[in-house]
Structures are given as C-alpha cells and as structure tokens.
C-alpha cells in the first residue's frame, strides 16, 4: 500500500463557525476522521503545519510547506496539502518552482464548504486528491470538483460554486468520477507527469529563495505614469497586466516610456494581459511593437498566479536580468508555457 502524507494548512475545509466568523480550527487528524474509508486504499498520516485562512498565505509560509514536503520526502509516496481556496493557485505554482525535480505527486485541495458541514464538497475533493496522490505521477496539482489541474494553471474563478477552479490555457490533467481516475489521453506526457518507470534521474531538492520585492500593476484607461517612480524605487520586478494582446498606452499617458525607464534602472518588467485566455503577442499592433523593441519579459499565456510566483523565484535565484528573462520565458516542462 502507498504511504501518503496529508499536510494541513487551514482554509475553509478545516473551518468551523465562530462568533468572529468562519475560522480554521481542525487539524489534519480530525480532517482524516471525516473520510475513514480512504484507509482501504493507502496508509495515511496527517500533520498540521499551520492553521490559517489562505488570505494570509505569504511566501514564507509557502516555503514552510515546501520544507514539510522535503523533510518527509523519502518516507512517503505522495503528498496531499489541504489549503484555503483563495490563494491555492499561487501556492501550487510556487511549489512547482520550489520543488525541483519532484518525482512524486503533490496534490493541493480544499473546499468551498467546511468539512464538518452537511453539504460539504470537502470529502469528495479530499478523497479525490488522496486517490490522485497514489498514482505513479510526478509534479504539483490542484484537485477540485472532480478535476486534476496542473499546479501552474489553476485559477479560482468563482467565489461560491463548487466548480470554482478552472485549468487555464491548458487542459485538465485528469477527471475523477466516483473514485475512478481518467487521465486526459490528449495530453503529451512530458516529463511533468510521465509515469515513474520512465525514471527521472535528477535529484529532488528544494530551492526556496523567493524575492518578495515584486509588484503587479493592472492598467486602466487614464492611469497616471507617476506610480512608476515608486515602483522603480521599491521593487526588483513588476508584472504589467496590459490590455488585450499586449497593449500599453504610449500617447498622452506614455506608459511605454515609463517601462523603458524601469528597464534602464535594472527592474525586471514582465508583460502579461488582463485577458485570462490566449496570452500576449507584441508583434501585431504598432503600440505593442514599440514595447517589443525593449528588453521586456514575455509572459506568453501564463496565469498571473503562476507568473508572480515564477518572477519571485527567478529574482530569488538569479542576479542577472538576462537569466531572469530566460527562466521566465522558458517552460520548465517541455510541453507547455509556464
Ligand atoms: N477564505 C478561505 C481560504 O482561502 C476560502 C476557502 O478556503 O475556500 O482560506
């Protein structure tokens, strides 16, 4: 039987009603008591490393999750991390970059309704995540509402519904219905989740240097360029959520000029889009072409969740901006963009 470690961090899944509002209160062992039948498919151990609403997740806490996996790596075949849904997409992406050459499944899950409530989605999500963590697959995933999503493509789209997470710009890796996993056969099984027999010989290690000095700037018509001086003084990298396929104002409000000043000052400037689907291309419109002549970093079709964590990781691990650009623009797995 496979040995699986459940790492609890809090979230709605572990919450109860209190006078102050819904609050994470139960630990990993109590969570597992809600799904006793799962013991028939694997040996489960539960540890609680924090008990937070994931609104309060931050890079240092993400590092603690990576360290918990590292500390227990040799003793388990797979890992399930229970986590609040609000920032789960960010943590899943951060773990993807921090867990270098991870050779086992790491599956994040949570729920929209607390596990103690009658109509909860937690038991199904948790059982699905545990089943998936018993598969001979490697990488970081999010399990939610019967879907397994690659850890760098999971985005929370809805605040209340059970089908809250979507896989953006990449198909879901697998579906689970009534406990049966159907892996998406249309996928090219790159080294992300290929079968373990194909053996990954590179050694697993965690790389947890994350640079927190980054900023995400969403453009809007009429945004004053003055904010850029503040960014220049205070941050090492900025992600600009541009319009459409990569449009950045260049007339009365000349943001393109501000971008070039940032680049001259050695700030990493990443261009992404406010549109969730299909990514950027700066070579179509004149406004984009002016920008493309500068050393901006292209986000392709990455989600802002994945991009922000990839930028933190890149700035934490590389000194040189060329290396940061190359790392962000190169998919860490051969068959997709992240
Ligand atoms: N606010 C909660 C959290 O992210 C929401 C949830 O878990 O669904 O911790």
TrEMBL record:
<dbReference type="InterPro" id="IPR036152">
    <property type="entry name" value="Asp/glu_Ase-like_sf"/>
</dbReference>
<dbReference type="InterPro" id="IPR027474">
    <property type="entry name" value="L-asparaginase_N"/>
</dbReference>
<dbReference type="InterPro" id="IPR027473">
    <property type="entry name" value="L-asparaginase_C"/>
</dbReference>
<feature type="domain" description="L-asparaginase N-terminal">
    <location>
        <begin position="3"/>
        <end position="186"/>
    </location>
</feature>
<dbReference type="InterPro" id="IPR041725">
    <property type="entry name" value="L-asparaginase_I"/>
</dbReference>
<dbReference type="Pfam" id="PF00710">
    <property type="entry name" value="Asparaginase"/>
</dbReference>
<feature type="active site">
    <location>
        <position position="12"/>
    </location>
</feature>
<feature type="binding site">
    <location>
        <begin position="85"/>
        <end position="86"/>
    </location>
    <ligand>
        <name>substrate</name>
    </ligand>
</feature>
<feature type="active site" description="O-isoaspartyl threonine intermediate">
    <location>
        <position position="12"/>
    </location>
</feature>
<dbReference type="Pfam" id="PF17763">
    <property type="entry name" value="Asparaginase_C"/>
</dbReference>
<dbReference type="InterPro" id="IPR040919">
    <property type="entry name" value="Asparaginase_C"/>
</dbReference>
<dbReference type="InterPro" id="IPR006034">
    <property type="entry name" value="Asparaginase/glutaminase-like"/>
</dbReference>
<dbReference type="InterPro" id="IPR027475">
    <property type="entry name" value="Asparaginase/glutaminase_AS2"/>
</dbReference>
<feature type="active site">
    <location>
        <position position="85"/>
    </location>
</feature>
<feature type="domain" description="Asparaginase/glutaminase C-terminal">
    <location>
        <begin position="213"/>
        <end position="326"/>
    </location>
</feature>
<dbReference type="GO" id="GO:0006520">
    <property type="term" value="P:amino acid metabolic process"/>
</dbReference>
<dbReference type="GO" id="GO:0004067">
    <property type="term" value="F:asparaginase activity"/>
</dbReference>
<feature type="binding site">
    <location>
        <position position="54"/>
    </location>
    <ligand>
        <name>substrate</name>
    </ligand>
</feature>
<dbReference type="InterPro" id="IPR037152">
    <property type="entry name" value="L-asparaginase_N_sf"/>
</dbReference>
<protein>
    <recommendedName>
        <fullName>asparaginase</fullName>
        <ecNumber>3.5.1.1</ecNumber>
    </recommendedName>
</protein>
<dbReference type="InterPro" id="IPR020827">
    <property type="entry name" value="Asparaginase/glutaminase_AS1"/>
</dbReference>
<dbReference type="InterPro" id="IPR006033">
    <property type="entry name" value="AsnA_fam"/>
</dbReference>
<comment type="similarity">
    <text>Belongs to the asparaginase 1 family.</text>
</comment>
<keyword id="KW-0378">Hydrolase</keyword>
């Amino acid at each position: 039987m496979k040995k699986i470690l459940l790492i609890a961090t809090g979230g709605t899944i572990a919450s109860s009603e209190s006078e102050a509002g819904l609050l994470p209160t139960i630990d990993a062992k109590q969570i597992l008591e809600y799904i006793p039948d799962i013991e028939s498919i694997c040996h489960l151990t539960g540890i609680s490393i924090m008990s937070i609403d994931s609104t309060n997740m931050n890079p240092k806490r993400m590092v603690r999750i990576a360290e918990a996996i590292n500390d227990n790596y040799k003793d388990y075949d797979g890992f399930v991390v229970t986590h609040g849904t609000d920032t789960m997409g960010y943590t899943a992406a951060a773990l993807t970059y921090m867990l270098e050459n991870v050779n086992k499944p790491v599956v994040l899950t949570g729920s929209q309704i607390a596990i103690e409530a009658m109509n909860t989605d937690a038991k199904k999500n948790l059982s699905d995540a545990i089943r998936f963590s018993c598969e001979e697959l490697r990488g970081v995933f999010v399990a939610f509402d019967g879907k397994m999503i690659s850890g760098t493509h999971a985005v929370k789209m809805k605040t209340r519904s059970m089908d809250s997470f979507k896989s953006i710009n990449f198909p879901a890796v697998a579906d689970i219905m009534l406990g049966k996993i159907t892996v998406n056969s249309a996928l090219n099984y790159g080294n992300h989740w290929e079968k373990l027999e194909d053996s990954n010989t590179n050694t697993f290690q965690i790389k947890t240097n994350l640079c927190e000095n980054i900023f995400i700037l969403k453009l809007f018509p009429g945004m004053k360029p003055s904010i850029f001086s503040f960014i220049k003084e205070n941050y090492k990298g900025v992600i600009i959520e541009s319009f459409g396929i990569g449009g950045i104002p260049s007339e009365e409000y000349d943001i393109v000029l501000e971008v070039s000043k940032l680049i001259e000052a050695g700030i990493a400037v990443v261009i992404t889009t406010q549109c969730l689907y299909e990514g950027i291309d700066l070579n179509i419109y004149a406004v984009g072409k002016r920008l493309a002549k500068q050393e901006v970093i292209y986000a392709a079709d990455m989600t802002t969740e994945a991009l922000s964590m990839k930028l933190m990781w890149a700035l934490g691990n590389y000194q040189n901006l060329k290396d940061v650009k190359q790392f962000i623009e190169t998919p860490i797995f051969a068959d997709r963009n992240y």
